[in-house]
Amino acid sequence: MRHIVWIHLALLVGCTRCASDEAAGAPDGSGAGSGTTTSTTTTSTRPLTLTTPGPPSPFPGWTAIPGLPGHCEVYAADEPAALDPLTWVTCAGGTPGCLELVTTWATPAQTYRFYVPFAGGPTPAGPVLVVRAIRSGELMGWHDHLVAYSDGAVLSALRARSAEFYGCAPGFAQVGADRVLWTVTDFTISPLMTEREMQMLLSGGPAYVYNTVADLHGAIGHLRSAGGTFAAVSYSGGYILTVPYDGSAPTRIAGLSDPATDSPASDGIAVGTDVLYWKWHADLAREHIYRSSTATTEVLIERPDWDVYGLRTDGHDLVWLESSPPRSMTDNPTAFELWTSPYATSAQALVRQKIASLTPELAQPYTSFQDGIFVLRHSSWARDVALRLADRVYFTLDAPPGQWWGDAAYVTAEEIALPVQPPWDAQLTSTVRRQRFADLGAPKPVPALLTGD
């Protein structure tokens, strides 16, 4: 099964990617040779098409993105699937079923180094990862931004100058089906990023069309997608923007909160044309839903004297956390619970089922839910718990000694991909680990969560 991986690579000297020629290992790390595994999937190299021509490109095989300000130098790979794939090796220590992303590689002109991964997720063709690469050598000062399947093949790629204080640069990417939604930030508005101009580019589909689909202003946060729609929230503008996978016109959803009494809408998920989101209201944390069919917003999940937070969905089920007393009464809640329901679009349709009581250490809001697997983050950031909703069992994943886990890059029924980071510094992510659940031993029953095991 393929997974899409969005990886940010810091390129200290770079090409598109130079995979090892040594013998590939099996996904469980049992192969011969170096233990390196590369893509063996045949991927079509569909040509890039643009809605309008862009300016000339200095890079053969890369075409300038049209519709951006004149000082924005952003180029797209004409045939991203023809770029060299990601490469994986057996994890240090030989952990069964574990692979690590190769994050440094070189050519005569360039060296690549992995930088910061962002969440990808399952797609019909498999999970994806998103990567940025920083270069030195011939292309010093240029970054490559890649969205690639976990088996290595690149789905989408942009190249831009480093824009720490001036210029434009791709930012977060969202992936759904075979499409990618990129955000390009114009840093000339404010180097301190207090005010930013952004544009969204939709790529993918039968011809890898790149099209500017929306202009944004101010601080933007991306929302998760559970299928059919991408979404972003404008914190300063107080609205959510949804962009359908099919490239049709985006929808701006305003009036989601009262600035005088509510927190901004945040931590949201786009599901089809609906949006789930979290906010404080009347001294309690609640989960809300915007229903596009009626253009109305209502509270989806609330509980008297409890905060509700961390809502996630894979499009089939809802999972969320509850804590009491609420934060409006104390900084130290004493009761924590994990709940689920089949997916619902109204409070009346919820079928609440308690999964487990939790220790405070596991009741953190940094959760993920994809393909029936709900991931809890331990407060140490050195342990994740992957709960399989169907049979209420879980697996424990511990970070390498002295390291932390970053937010899950993707989760499927078969495996999880987790960035490896030094404590307190996600900018220095060293690699991504893919771990197969089947090689972690027998899962534990959910009631054991209360013991913290």
Structure notes:
This protein has 453 residues and is mostly beta strands. The model is unreliable at 6-47, 108-119 and 190-195 (pLDDT under 50). The chain has strands at 4-10, 49-50, 62-64, 74-77, 88-90, 98-101, 104-106, 111-121, 128-134, 142-149, 154-161, 168-176, 179-186, 197-204, 209-217, 220-225, 229-234, 239-244, 251-253, 266-271, 274-281, 284-291, 296-301, 307-313, 317-324, 335-342, 353-357, 368-370, 373-377, 383-388, 393-398, 404-405, 410-411, 415-421, 431-436, 444-445. The protein is globular, with a radius of gyration of 22 Å. The chain has no helices and 36 strands. Strands 1, 3, 4, 7, 8, 9, 10 and 11 form an 8-stranded mixed sheet that branches. Strands 19-18-17-16-20-21-22-23 form an 8-stranded mixed sheet, with no helix packed on it. Strands 5, 6, 32, 33, 34 and 35 form a 6-stranded antiparallel sheet that branches. Helix content is 0%, strand content 46%. The relative contact order is 0.12.
Which SSEs are present, and which pair or pack?
Layout: E1 4-10, E2 49-50, E3 62-64, E4 74-77, E5 88-90, E6 98-101, E7 104-106, E8 111-121, E9 128-134, E10 142-149, E11 154-161, E12 168-176, E13 179-186, E14 197-204, E15 209-217, E16 220-225, E17 229-234, E18 239-244, E19 251-253, E20 266-271, E21 274-281, E22 284-291, E23 296-301, E24 307-313, E25 317-324, E26 335-342, E27 353-357, E28 368-370, E29 373-377, E30 383-388, E31 393-398, E32 404-405, E33 410-411, E34 415-421, E35 431-436, E36 444-445
Parallel strand pairs: 1-9, 2-15, 16-20
Antiparallel strand pairs: 1-8, 1-10, 3-4, 4-11, 5-6, 6-35, 7-8, 8-9, 9-10, 10-11, 12-13, 13-14, 14-15, 16-17, 17-18, 18-19, 20-21, 21-22, 22-23, 24-25, 25-26, 26-27, 28-29, 29-30, 30-31, 31-36, 32-34, 33-34, 34-35
